[in-house]
Design goal:
It is built from no helices and 16 strands. It is an all-beta fold and 147 residues long.
């Protein structure tokens, strides 16, 4: 997979972007992979690593609005990542982004997969939370981004 095409689900315009550092494709002969790490473990799984970010638009106190000119990229922290088998949409693995938006998940070799970033943070215990970003115009559908 040389490029990454992002599509939105539930009308998510530009909530966050995901940059996949290693594609879910089998290793192979030589050649430059652009720095991607295609690590295969002893069980024949491929490690897919990436970073999830979003465009942070700060508040503009001068007009009590948004300062689009000061938009910056920020990490998606503690978000749920799902690895979905493309053939049947089954979730085959899950992970969570860390404090800088990085994630790593194991994928079976020779399997077409979709990486889904869910706009939710779930943590049990202390401290615990269950935060979701939903579209109130679409029956509270959860925002997600898939690649």
């Amino acid at each position: 997979m040389d490029g990454l095409i992002l599509t939105t689900v539930n009308r998510l315009a530009a909530f966050f972007a995901i940059v996949v550092l290693a594609a879910a494709c089998g290793g192979g002969g030589g050649g430059d992979d652009g720095g991607a790490a295609n690590d295969t473990d002893t069980d024949g799984n491929l490690t897919i690593s990436g970073k999830a970010t979003f465009d942070l638009v700060p508040h503009n106190p001068a007009n009590n609005g948004l300062a689009y000119g000061s938009t910056s990229t920020a990490p998606v922290r503690n978000a749920v990542i799902q690895l979905v088998r493309a053939a049947d949409q089954a979730v085959i693995a899950t992970a969570e982004t860390d404090s800088v938006g990085d994630f790593s998940v194991q994928s079976p070799l020779n399997t077409d997969v979709i990486i889904r970033v869910r706009a939710e943070m779930v943590r049990s215990g202390m401290p615990g939370w269950d935060v979701r970003v939903v579209d109130n115009t679409q029956n509270n559908a959860l925002y997600v981004l898939e690649s």
